[in-house]
Each structure stands twice: as structure tokens, then as C-alpha cells.
Amino acid sequence: MGWGTNEALIIEILAHRNAAQRKLIRETYAATYGEDLLKDLDKELSSDFERAVLLWTLDPSERDSFLANEATKKLTASNWVIMEIACTRSSYDLFKVRQAYHARYKKSLEEDVAYHTKGDFRKLLVPLVSAFRYEGDDLNMTLAKSEAKILHEKISDKAYSDEELIRILTTRSKTQLNATLNHYNNHFGNAVNKDLKTDPEDEYLKLLRATIKCLTCPEKYFEKVLRLAINRLGTDEGALTRVVATRAEVDMHRIKEEYQRRNSVPLDRAVAGDTSGDYEKMLLALIGHGDA
Amino acid sequence: MGWGTNEALIIEILAHRNAAQRKLIRETYAATYGEDLLKDLDKELSSDFERAVLLWTLDPSERDSFLANEATKKLTASNWVIMEIACTRSSYDLFKVRQAYHARYKKSLEEDVAYHTKGDFRKLLVPLVSAFRYEGDDLNMTLAKSEAKILHEKISDKAYSDEELIRILTTRSKTQLNATLNHYNNHFGNAVNKDLKTDPEDEYLKLLRATIKCLTCPEKYFEKVLRLAINRLGTDEGALTRVVATRAEVDMHRIKEEYQRRNSVPLDRAVAGDTSGDYEKMLLALIGHGDA
Fold first, then answer.
1. Which of A111, A130, A163 sits opposite B130 (nearest CB)?
2. What tens-digit pLDDT sequence spans chain B (292 residues)?
3. Residue A98 at interface with chain B, using a CB cutoff of 8 Å
4. Which letter does DSSP use for residue B84 in this model?
5. What's the gap between Cα A167 and its chain centre?
6. What are the structural domains, with CATH classification, of chain A?
7. Any chain A CB within 8 A of the CB of B134?
8. pTM (predicted TM-score)
9. Is B115 in contact with A163 (Cβ distance < 8 A)?
């Protein structure tokens, strides 16, 4: 991309701009270089730094549609990324991702997800990405109790992809679902995610537990993704960049709190210890983005 | 509702107003009578005339969310109405129905549909109402051929609720689906709906055929609904009012053409022969709504 030696300037400029400002920058970039940033993303990126810069510079709904599309492709397939986008964005933001997906890929998000997944994964992921959940605080306790009972029956029967279980997780509002899972915990003695841990190696069960975590306490989910990305042998830069670029403007503050609590070390210090050069500087700038 | 003797005036005023003008009227109604028209709809309506007036006066997305909600309720349940709304509205209009559903019912459309349906009907209807289909003209002929083959295999096996068959019908764009069904017809010798007529009494198969009709030639679907509503012993006013009120501003002209062609009698004459009084006058005004 020929940015030459201006990395420090790029970090200085981009990392401290909000979404509206970055949109302007992107338009200027297109006018100056005659190329769209999104196009550059499609090319093989030469470095983690460039990927971080490009992801960050995109509009949130374009960024998510790009990540979701990548996650449906064979070589970069990831059920987790699809689930994460479907479950941690607001209902309307998820809809905007679906609109951006139409515009860019001339297809629908759910059509690609349905086409590229199968079995239990498809049964869970297609309704997740198609959902437009109600977001009010309205709560039906009778329903929460009866659906906690359904969840308990299905999980006791190890019917983890039962259509009733999937219906509840994929259509109920987060407020309603939270009440249902609290009742489950109070009434049946275990948190639902504990009862879903019968086989720790089962990939579908892992995704199901992560889904529940994303829907009820996203900052804990993101803390864990970061922890695993940093602590493993050879950093998982894909996950690290994704979480930092997508959460910097949303809930990074709570993720940092959660990270500190769980790891007894601040997130920025953990990231600094695991990355280097411009990539490190960019991530640290984004992690500190919301700070005054 | 105490409209007294002003029915002629109501017809005169309302039936000739477009959606924006009716919105104004509705606001005036609320200011004058201190009540929302939608609220009145929830009451037992005393006549077909009143229901026609109220349905027509609503904003299209409110009207559809009202009809869809009614269709998920026990006493007024209708898989057909749900399917019709999901398949004959544009992608964005269907999304607006989902937004209106949140606002009015404090729940999501798909959550009510999923909760109130089961078995094969649920498997088909939930993805239909959750879809945000791509609407461009882009077409993948290789895909059309391979998916026509999948449809043929599943239908030959009588696997009518197979997940692949449902995936294709519920996620592909109407343009893409049309190409797939054309290839099916050319390559396997029958229209898909002919092959789906193995048991003419099967309710799920009827709904499946209607779904395909709605997705590929809605005016033929609506012509048939009108024909059956008018020709049966005792008019089906529910279906008649619904189709007239929801299509008057959309494709009534094509539905009238189709009706004339199929029945050798103009739609307005058929309606006039089957209804009477203010109800008749209101329907005829709406059927002629688009005419100069």
C-alpha cells in the first residue's frame, strides 16, 4: 500500500478519530488514492498493522459485514465471528450490517451463513443473524419460568440443538432471556452454561455457551477471547485485532475492567508484552481510545 | 364507534387518499376523538365496513404488523397471512413491519411466530418472516442449476420440510429463486408446484405452494385468494378486505388484470355481486383507487 514511513502519523491521526471523522478520512483516502479502503482489505494484507488500521477505519456496519463475509469463506471460516456479530450488536446495528452486506456482496448475510454452514451450527447461526430482537425492558416472568423449564428438560435430555431450545435463544429479547436464565440458575441449581459443559471438547456446545455469554454478559465473552488470544503460544492476532477494532468505541472500558479483574494485569500491559512495533502502538492507541 | 350516518363521506374522503394523506387524517382523528385508530382495531369490530376503513387508514407497516399479530393469535391464527406478509412485501418493507411490531407489541414478530407455530410450519415461517432478502438483479446460473437439482431430489424423496429446501426458499433473492425454479421446470419437466401437489389436502404442502407463488408471481396468488373468497358459499370478508386494503396502493392493477383473465369477469363486478351497502362501496372505491 505504499504508506512508507508514515506509520506513526497514521496511528496519531486515525486512532483518535471517531466513526464520523473516520468516514471523512476514508472519503479523502478514496479521493486521494483513487481506491476504496474496503478494496484494499480484500487484498492479502501484508501486516497485522495494516489490517488493524483498515478494520478500524471502516464504518462499523461495513466492518462487521466484512468480518462476517470473511467468516463464511472456506479458508477463513469462523462460526464464532458470525455468532459474535449476531449476538453482541444491537438489533438495529445488526440490521445495518445486513444492509451493508447487501450493498457490498450483492447477497444477504443469512443466505451466505445458511449456505456455508450445516447441521447444528446452521440451525443456531441462521436465526441468530436473522434476528431483530425486541430491546425494551418488558419482562414476562411466567414465560421466563416456563421457558427455563423447557431449557432444563432439553439440556437434561442432551437435546442441545432441539428446536425449542434454539427458538428461545434466538428470538427472545436479551432482557427476557436473562430472566429465563436467572430462573434456570435459581430453580435448577446450576448456571445453564455449567449444564452445557458435559463434553468440554464438543465444538457445538462451546459455541452454544459462547452464544449465551454474548447475549447476557458480552464483556466477559470479549475478555475471554482476548485472554486466549494473548496467552496462547504465538498470539492470535486475528482475534486480538478484531476485538480491539470492533469494541474500542463500544464497551472497551468494561472489557478492560473485566480483563484486569480476571488476569490481575491491565489489558494494555498484556497487549504490549505480546505485540511490537506499529501494530502494538496502534492497538494501544485504540485500547485507550475512549480515555480522556 | 358512533360514526353515525357519515359513511358515504368517510368513503369519499378516505378511499381516495394516499398513505401520507391518511397519516394526517389519522393524526387528526386522534386529536379529535382522543383515541388512536389502532386501538379501535383491537376492539371487536361491528362491521366489515369498519374493518375495511380502519385497515385502509393504517400506515402500511402498522397494518401489516396488526395483521401478522392477529395471525399468531389462537382464535385468528393464520399461517397464510404470516406467509403472505413475509413473501409479498419488499425486504425493507418487511423490516419496517418488524420495527412497527416492536413498537406496538413490545415483542418481535419472529418471536411470536416461532412461539405460536410448530413442526414444519414453524420451520418454514420463522425464516420467512426473519428474511432480509437481497433485491438486486444479480444472478448466479451455476447456483440456480445446482439448487434446482437439490429441490428436485428433496421433492422426489417427499422431504418437503428438508432444511436444504427451506434454506433455498427462505434465503435466496426472488430473482435468484425465479431462475432456480425456471431451471427446475425446464430440466425436470414439471413446474415445482406441480410436483408439490402429491397430496392436494396436505395443509403444509398447500402453504409451500402458496409461498412459491407469492415469491414468484404475487398477483396470481392474490387473484386466487380473491377468487376463493368471492366464489365460496358466504363470502370470506376477512380475506377480501385484507387483500383489497393491502394491495390497493401496490399492485391492484395487475391483480385486476389477472382476475379478469382467470374469471372472465372484472373484479369490481364480482365484488359488487357478492357484497352490499357501505362495505361494497368502500371496497369498490379501493379497487378503483389507482385509477385516474
1. A130
2. 445 546 777 777 777 888 888 888 788 878 887 777 666 655 645 689 888 988 998 899 999 999 999 999 988 999 999 999 999 999 999 999 999 999 999 999 999 999 999 999 999 999 999 999 999 999 999 999 999 999 999 999 999 999 999 999 999 999 999 999 999 999 999 999 999 999 999 999 999 999 999 999 999 999 999 999 998 888 899 999 999 999 999 999 999 999 999 999 999 999 999 999 999 999 999 999 656 4
3. yes
4. H
5. 21
6. 7-130 (1.10.220.10), 141-213 (1.10.220.10), 218-287 (1.10.220.10)
7. yes
8. 0.92
9. no
